[in-house]
């Protein structure tokens, strides 16, 4: 059963500024972090005011975990990483969101976390279009309108 979503949901401006919208799953908005160094998805449950995973109902927690699992499998199939990192921190952006990051031995941050490492390398228009197309196909999402 798909939970009904509150129309008061607003994406944190920092997440919006740092990413491309992939699309909408049953519970979450899926974003692609605009940094080619790290294939990186962010899932944001479309509920206003959430800060913690524990603020979701048990059903919504299971739905979010299913969506993270789906996103991780698709990202893994596309990026073929050495390791997948999945995390929910919220120290800088308090809005509840989960990171799904494909990592490679020897990437710009390896083996440390990706946060605060170097300068982002934004996707070109052609590359973002290509990657977004692959992600949307893998997640069975419609193109953004």
UniProtKB/TrEMBL annotation:
It comes from the Bacteria. SUPFAM superfamilies: HIT-like (SSF54197). Residues 8-110 form the HIT domain. Coiled coil: none annotated. Gene3D superfamilies: HIT-like. InterPro entries: HIT-like (IPR011146), HIT-like_sf (IPR036265), HIT_Hint (IPR026026). This is HIT family protein. It comes from Tahibacter amnicola.
């Amino acid at each position: 059963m798909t939970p009904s979503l509150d129309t008061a949901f607003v994406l944190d401006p920092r997440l919006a500024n740092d990413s491309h919208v992939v699309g909408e799953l049953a519970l979450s908005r899926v974003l692609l972090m605009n940094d080619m160094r790290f294939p990186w998805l962010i899932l944001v449950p479309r509920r206003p005011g959430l800060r913690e995973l524990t603020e979701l109902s048990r059903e919504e927690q299971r739905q979010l975990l299913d969506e993270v699992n789906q996103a991780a499998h698709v990202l893994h199939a596309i990026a073929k990483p050495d390791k997948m990192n999945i995390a929910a921190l919220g120290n800088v952006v308090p809005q509840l969101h989960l990171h799904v990051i494909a990592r490679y031995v020897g990437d710009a941050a390896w083996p440390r976390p990706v946060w605060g490492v170097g300068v982002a390398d934004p996707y070109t228009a052609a590359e973002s279009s290509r990657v977004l197309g692959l992600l949307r196909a893998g997640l069975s999402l419609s193109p953004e309108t």
